[in-house]
Amino acid sequence: MAVREIEPIVLELDRLEQMAESGYYNPYTMFEWPDALEPDRPWMSESLTTLAGTPMWDELTREQQLALTKYEAINFFSLNIHGIRELMSEVVMRIHERTYSNVSEFLHHFIGEENEHMWFFAQFCLRYGGKLYPAQPTLKAASVDHLSQVARELIVFARILIFEEIVDHYNALMATDQSLPHIAREINRVHHQDESRHVAFGRMIFLNLLKQVAGRDPEEVPVVAEYLESYLQYSIGTLYNPAAYRDAGIPDALALRRRALAHPARVQAHDKVLKRTRAFLSKAGVGRELIKR
Ligand SMILES: [Fe+2]
Ligand SMILES: [Fe+2]
Fold it and tell me: 106 in a domain, yes or no?
């Protein structure tokens, strides 16, 4: 029976732990929160909104365009909050398990940092947007329920990694976008800094677990690949929130969402967001080319 158990995860994390310690900051005092944001600035980079590059964007009034950047920023930060809560609860459950005892020091940093991220994202949403958008239904993992324990463990950490890589694409671009209000830029910048460590760790633990899966039952690998590709697409879909369209005063929110998601300019934009992650998965041997059609 022992052979079915997950082998303890051993990773070289000294450098990441040192960086977490030396870069430690107090999130509760480091930001200056203005009472209100300048009304004529976008809250999210215009090129990152879900209608960017399509005629649907051009058809909006300037007022609607600015409103869309605001509500999509609130949606993006809300997605962060819900995603963090999900990943934190998974990590908390594992922190003192034998499998993870060698990485628990890093996991402590991880949980602490994520708690702080959740706080500053919620501050932004509540102060300036007056609300969070509710969590969207998560992608069911029924197709992978029957897999081995180690494969299901791999899926848990892969979901965390994919979520963090997608978010980081947006954070990295908005961290330097001078058109945004200073506080919006700062939140993106600070998050991007912490996430570079999380992504590095996420890739290491992913590769470790994938190796265990492939060593035990290589037939599980294409099943994982298929699930991960659907998770990538599901994650992109969550950015297109009809409620944000409605709040921005744009009619026919559901139809607009469908049209936008399928528009060639958007398909191209999605590929750009997912490029780095897909390249990593392919190189690891679990890319979408394994999916049987
Ligand atoms: Fe985070
Ligand atoms: Fe993170």
Answer: yes
* Distance from residue 25's CA to the centre of ligand 1 (Å): 14
Give the tokens for residue 242: 């009809």
CA of 205 to the centre of ligand 2 (A): 14
Check if the beta carbon of residue 227 is closer than 8 Å to that of residue 145. no
CA 145 to the chain's CA centroid: 23
Q: Which residues contact 22 (CB under 8 A, 6 or more apart)?
A: none
Going from the Cα of 282 to the center of ligand 1, the distance in angstroms, rounded, reads 25
Direct distance between the N- and C-terminal alpha carbons of the chain, in angstroms, rounded to an integer: 35
Q: What is the share, in percent, of the chain residues with pLDDT greater than 70?
A: 99
User: Is 172 domain-assigned?
Assistant: yes
Query: In this structure, which amino acid lies at residue 288?
Result: R
8 Å CB contact between 169 and 162: no
Ligand 1 (single-atom ion) residues, CB below 5 Å: 117
Give domain status of residue 180, yes or no.
yes
Task: Return the ligand number nearest the Cα of 118.
Answer: 1
Rounded distance between C-alpha atoms, residue 232 and residue 281, angstroms: 11
Q: Which ligand is nearest to the CA of 191?
A: 1
Model pLDDT for residues 251-275, shown as the tens digit of each residue:
999 999 999 999 999 999 999 999 9
Asked whether residue 8 is domain-assigned, the answer is no
The boundaries of the domain holding residue 269 are: 13-18+43-290
Over residues 128-165, the pLDDT tens digits come to 999 999 999 988 878 889 999 999 999 999 999 999 99
Percent of the chain with pLDDT over 90: 94
Over residues 220-248, the pLDDT tens digits come to 999 999 999 999 999 999 999 999 999 99
CATH number of the domain bearing residue 107: 1.10.620.20
